[in-house]
Amino acid sequence: KRHVLPLEAVPRAIVNHETTGVFKLVADAKTGKLLGAHVVAEHAGEVIYAATLAVKFGLTITDLRETLVAVFIRWLKG
Predict the structure, then answer these.
(1) Which of 7, 46, 57, 66 lies 20 to 30 Å (CA to CA) from residue 75?
(2) What CATH number did the domain enclosing 62 receive?
(3) What pLDDT, on the 0 to 100 scale, is given for residue 18?
(4) GO annotations under biological process (predicted)?
């Protein structure tokens, strides 16, 4: 199963006025385990690490979503 998220839906991208791009996540339809990710965006390198670790450690889409939200919240407080 694939999940596509345009950057217009990403709060940090909106705040930075960098909404051109997309996140594409590929996960097992039954377990939600992340199998791969594509990030096409100006600062893709800042977030692709989370997807890379999620694949390596067998995390799910939910795990990754919670990780990215935590990163964004920390960035706002910084």
Answers:
(1) 57
(2) 3.30.390.30
(3) 80
(4) 2-oxoglutarate metabolic process
